[in-house]
Amino acid sequence: MKNKILSSSTMQTQFPSTILLLLLILTTYHFIPSLSQICNPNDKNALLQIKKQLGNPSQLSSWDPTTDCCNTTWQGASCDTFTPTYRITDLDLSDLQLSQPYPIPPSITNLPALTLLSLANIPNLVGPIPPSIVNLTILRYLTIRNTNISGEIPGILSQIKTLVTITFTNNKLTGPLPASLSSLPVLGGISFDSNQLTGAIPESYGSFSKTLFTGLTLSRNKLSGKIPASLANLNLAFLDLSRNALEGDASVFFGSKKETQQIVLGNNKFGFDFGKVGLSKNLEKLDLRNNKIYGTLPEGLTALKFLHKLNVSSNNLCGQIPSLRFDETSYAHNKCLCGSPLPPCKT
């Protein structure tokens, strides 16, 4: 009987302790930081400043100061949640309807962990690319596309040694191509189409990595001058220099041992013997229209299994057209090309 009384007394003593422990656990759990509370305060402040510097566009209404920038609801902002730092690594701002013209927000460069920055389809984004962009020291992918950004491409981009791609298409950029970009060790491609760039392609561009640098697109600019012979060192998958005023020997881009998939050189002043070039077995698109290219069509064209687009019209080519499945618009307005689909060659 005494043992039962002791047991009952012990249970009465332990019961309140159990309740207290449970309350402690619940209280502790309540204060464990969740994903809505882990945002780096400096990054959150920078994002809120960016929003303000863009005139608080409605597309960024999800950037609510009462929530956290790492909770996946902040439009275009992504955090690194795999490390304890929880920093903003990706900022992809697209289709912002700005109430008036605004420059690139200076606070963007207060996001030191950015690896991707994309500003696309923002007509009211104006002004130059700020020099402070070099503060983004680990940036890998930089895109400014379909905006009214103007001024020169800053040569100091070469200080961001981690850059893999630079895309500045359809803006109002002017001035020369920065020669210093060739010093970027892991750069895989540049795309500066549809701007107002002037001058020649730098000789230094032949120093881009032969194994990493695979894309060079500079179409629809005001570039001029001769193609540097050094560009023969490149092994490009994609090349587009169309609609400029470039001249010289563009045969440097061809080669049977290269991995080229697309060569677009139309509407320039290039002159070289097309019949003597080697052709990449991977070639899918070849556009040489409106140049001063001479010679014959290479017999190797018939061996290209992936070639689906060819245009050599408006040049100085002669000779028999190889047996290919392209219509007459692909060959029209040459000096003396002949054979199907053009009139037969004279015997």
Automatic annotation (TrEMBL):
Transmembrane regions listed in the UniProt entry: none
What keywords would UniProt list here?
Answer: Glycoprotein, Leucine-rich repeat, Membrane, Repeat, Signal
Q: Name one Pfam family in it.
A: LRRNT_2
Keyword check for Membrane: yes
Q: Name one GO cellular component term.
A: membrane
Q: Where in the cell is it found?
A: Membrane
- List, for all copies, the residue spans of the domain called Leucine-rich repeat-containing N-terminal plant-type: 41-80
SUPFAM superfamilies for the chain: L domain-like
Report if keyword Membrane is assigned. Answer: yes
Primary site of residence: membrane
Official protein name in the record:
Polygalacturonase inhibitor 2-like
Highest lineage ranks of the organism? Answer: Eukaryota, Viridiplantae, Streptophyta, Embryophyta, Tracheophyta
Q: Its gene?
A: LOC101505245
